[in-house]
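Technical annex, item 7. During the second reporting period the consortium partners agreed on a shared format for inverse folding records so that results from different sites could be compared directly. Each record opens with the tokenized structure and is followed by the designed sequence. A conforming record, contributed by the partner at site C, is shown below for reference.
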């Protein structure tokens, strides 16, 4: 992955070894840029600034422009034309994406050591008339930390997310086809350990986290574009953790590698924050020229 440093005009490569990890999509990388630089600062961003970062991360310009256009059509950002260039601002909907999603991402290092053993269980039957909702249901429940140990059965050690799940069920018009329970695992049936084994593919997730740690261990990017590109790629990976990791409590999954990976990313992000923000401000101040 390579681009040109905004300050010097020289070619810059993303030297970090993320090759063992699936590359971030243009959409996910754009969301990271918006969440790391546009949302915290509350300032509009030029198209050329977004393209500079996305192209530096290996995204073709046409694909990057399509991602920006789709973000606008999805109502995440709105544009204001200045001559031949467009300056983008987050919409209220776009702000809500980060207000609601950021706490979940930041909680990935939390061991939930105060878990009281209570589970939220859903029994969901998807009728033929609602079969198109299946994918949205599964992705929404996975994001909320649910596992699927048996057909039609979803469990989560996060009963505090019941309001979030209720909103998903109502949105998909599945309330009449859902039963929920909150409580502890009983003596009848498989034990808690088996529920965890059957509900989530933790072995595959552990392998993924090993690759993440290999990719970020020892990173020392040079200030400027190299650090900014590395920062965005790393944070984009971090933001996808909740899509796969149920955030099981320490009592169920002690010394989980996912928490260690999240803490490592948090530390690097904090270490680079001031420098990448200053470099981003420099890039965006020169926008409107491409």
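Designed sequence (site C submission):
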């Amino acid at each position: 992955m390579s681009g040109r440093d905004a300050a010097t005009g020289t070619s810059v490569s993303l030297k970090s070894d993320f090759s063992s990890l699936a590359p971030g999509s243009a959409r996910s990388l754009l969301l990271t840029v918006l969440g790391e630089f546009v949302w915290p600062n509350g300032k509009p961003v030029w198209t050329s600034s977004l393209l500079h970062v996305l192209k530096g991360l290996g995204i073709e310009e046409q694909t990057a422009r399509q991602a920006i256009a789709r973000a606008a059509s999805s109502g995440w950002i709105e544009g204001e034309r200045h001559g031949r260039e467009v300056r983008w601002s987050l919409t209220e909907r776009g702000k809500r994406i980060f207000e609601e999603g950021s706490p979940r991402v930041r909680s990935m290092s939390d061991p939930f050591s105060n878990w009281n053993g209570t589970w939220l269980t859903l029994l969901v039957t998807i009728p033929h008339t609602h079969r198109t909702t299946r994918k949205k249901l599964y992705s929404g429940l996975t994001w909320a930390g649910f596992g699927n140990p048996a057909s039609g059965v979803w469990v989560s050690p996060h009963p505090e997310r019941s309001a979030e799940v209720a909103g998903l069920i109502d949105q998909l018009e599945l309330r009449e086809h859902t039963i929920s329970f909150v409580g502890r695992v009983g003596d009848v049936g498989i034990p808690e350990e088996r529920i965890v084994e059957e509900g989530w593919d933790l072995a595959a997730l552990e392998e993924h986290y090993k690759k993440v740690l290999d990719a970020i261990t020892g990173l020392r990017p040079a200030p400027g574009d190299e650090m900014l590109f590395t920062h965005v790629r790393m944070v984009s990976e971090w933001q996808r953790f909740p899509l796969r990791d149920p955030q099981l409590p320490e009592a169920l999954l002690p010394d989980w590698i996912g928490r260690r990976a999240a803490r490592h990313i948090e530390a690097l992000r904090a270490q680079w924050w001031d420098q990448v923000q200053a470099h981003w401000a420099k890039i965006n101040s020169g926008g409107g020229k491409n």
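The CA atoms of residues 186 and 192 lie 9 Å apart. Strands lie at 2-4, 11-13, 45-46, 77-82, 85-90, 119-124, 147-150, 153-156, 178-183. All partners now use this format for quarterly exchanges.
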